[in-house]
Specification:
single chain; OB fold (Dihydrolipoamide Acetyltransferase, E2P); three-stranded antiparallel β-sheet; 29% helix; 33% strand
C-alpha cells in the first residue's frame, strides 16, 4: 500500500511541474494589437526586445482572449496597456497556467 501511495505522489508531483504559472514579460510595449477576426478575438501586447522576466515560448507577446475573461477585465487590460504604451511605462503580465494567456496586468516602474 505504501508503495502505491509513493508512486501516486511521484506521479502527481511530476504532473504539477508541467503546469507552471509565472510572468510572461516585464517591460515597455512595442505595440498593442486588438484582433476582431472570427477565429481570433483578443488583445495582444507586444513587448520591446529589452523586456525581462520572459516566458521563452511567448516570443515577447502576451495574449488576452476575450472569451476567457469577462468584458470588464478586458476593458481594464486595454486601459492599462494603452496608458503604459502612451507613457512609456513598464508593464508586467502574469499567467496562471503554462500559456501566453495573461491573467494579470500591472503598470509599474520596477519588478516586484
Amino acid at each position: 500500500m505504501k508503495l502505491a501511495v509513493s508512486y501516486l505522489f511521484i506521479a502527481l508531483l511530476g504532473f504539477s511541474s508541467l503546469v507552471e504559472a509565472g510572468d510572461i514579460a516585464f517591460g515597455t510595449l512595442k505595440g498593442v494589437k486588438v484582433y476582431g477576426f472570427a477565429n481570433d478575438q483578443s488583445i495582444r501586447l507586444v513587448f520591446n526586445s529589452d523586456a525581462t522576466h520572459l516566458k521563452s515560448d511567448c516570443n515577447f507577446v502576451a495574449k488576452f482572449t476575450f472569451s476567457q475573461h469577462d468584458e470588464a477585465f478586458i476593458d481594464r487590460v486595454l486601459s492599462v496597456a494603452l496608458a503604459a504604451y502612451m507613457s512609456g511605462q513598464k508593464v508586467r503580465v502574469h499567467a496562471v497556467s503554462d500559456t501566453c494567456e495573461g491573467e494579470f496586468i500591472a503598470m509599474q516602474d520596477s519588478y516586484f
